[in-house]
Amino acid sequence: MIKTLSRTGNSLALILDRPLLEATGIDAETSLEISTDGEVIVISPVREPAERERFRTVAAAVTERYAGVFRRLAE
Questions:
Q1: What distance in Å separates the CA atoms of residue 4 and residue 16, rounded to the nearest whole number?
Q2: Is the domain defined by 5-74 classed in CATH 3.30.450?
Q3: What is the Cα–Cα distance from 69 to 67, expressed in whole angstroms?
Q4: In Å, what is the CA distance from 6 to each residue of 11, 30, 52?
Q5: Quick one: CA dihedral 25, 26, 29, 32, positive or negative?
Q6: For 20-51, how does the pLDDT look when each residue is reduced to its tens digit (9 = 90+)?
Q7: How far apart are CA 3 and CA 37, in angstroms?
Q8: Taking the model in full, what pTM does it have?
Q9: Secondary structure tally for the chain: helices H, strands E
Q10: Backbone dihedral region of 42: left (phi > 0), alpha (psi from -120 to 50 degrees) or beta?
Q11: Reduced to 3 states, what is the DSSP secondary structure of residue 36?
Q12: Cα(69)–Cα(63) distance, rounded to whole angstroms?
């Protein structure tokens, strides 16, 4: 996905589309951690340990359920 920054006052903003927000479980109340290695910017939701474990469990279930589909898409 390629995005451009939008001017907001004297700052720049990155607008995140609803499908991306829904896929990552981010909403207006989610705290975000922003880091960089000097070249790449990484934006990650701050998750509580229980929430992280729940996310891993759901991700594993989705991966298992759709493994065949993912394999075909990768080909």
A1: 10
A2: no
A3: 5
A4: 8, 21, 31
A5: positive
A6: 999 988 999 999 999 999 999 999 988 777 77
A7: 20
A8: 0.53
A9: 3, 4
A10: beta
A11: strand
A12: 9
